[in-house]
Amino acid sequence: MTDHDNGLWVRRFHPAPAGAPRLVCLPHAGGSASFFFPVSRALSPAVEVLSVQYPGRQDRRQEPCVPTIGELARQVTDVLRPWTDRPLAIFGHSMGATLGFEVARLLEAETGAPVAHLFPSGRRAPSCRRHETVHLLDDEGLLADVKKLSGTNSAILGDPDMLRAALPAIRSDYRAAETYTYADGPKLTCPVTVFTGDADPKTTVDEAKAWAEHTTGPFDLHVFPGGHFFLASHQPAILRTLSAALTRTTVG
């Protein structure tokens, strides 16, 4: 997992010129790299987006899913190491936000240098623990939660064959997210900018504010009207925030 052009894990939809900062995008539970194609298109060519494809979905559906956030973070960190030759920021939504935090911790511990910026979206701070067991429900119960959050493409929800193919990854990701336990350790030193919806059943505004406790760097919080997938309705504002932060990042 050291190939700089590893198309298995990293999807680079719009390569950017040398010197452009990189934004790693980490999908939500059950999500795939293609979810961030519009983000890549919108930020190109000023920012190079690297969208991560987890095992167990789409063209990687024959591979076993990674069962824990900790193990997935280690694998993603290995994959990203060759891409750290220029400033590297991380955006993660829902499960991807927790994963992004752990990847940022590993990279900073490994290199002694922080990532350029961490953008958690739609997820409570790592230290805010909830007892959640959706991953233990039967298929109907799991799908009811997915539909409530509107986290899966409606075409997939209406297609039984696609749904059967997606369910194992959705369940595995839910299990990884719900069984995650924060381990105390050094705070990040990078800027952290959090995005959240004011009616998200998975994250309260106070739980989003608690991300400030996990960095010694600058902290900002953007609260939008909406539920767990508020970002679909507020993409222009989120993209403006990402662009402003990332284009201030220069190669040292």
Automatic annotation (TrEMBL):
What InterPro entries does the record point to? AB_hydrolase_fold, TEII, TesA-like, Thioesterase
Domain Thioesterase TesA-like, residue spans: 24-246
Tell me which family the UniProt entry assigns to this protein: Belongs to the thioesterase family.
Specify whether Hydrolase is a keyword of the entry.
yes
Q: Where are the transmembrane segments?
A: none
The protein here is known as: Surfactin synthase thioesterase subunit
SUPFAM superfamilies tied to this protein: alpha/beta-Hydrolases
SMART domains cross-referenced by the UniProt entry: PKS_TE
Q: Which superkingdom, per the lineage?
A: Bacteria
Keyword set, alphabetical order: Hydrolase
Q: Which PANTHER family match?
A: S-ACYL FATTY ACID SYNTHASE THIOESTERASE, MEDIUM CHAIN, THIOESTERASE
Which is a GO BP term held by this UniProt record?
lipid biosynthetic process
Named from the GO MF annotations, one term is:
hydrolase activity
A Pfam family found in this protein is Thioesterase
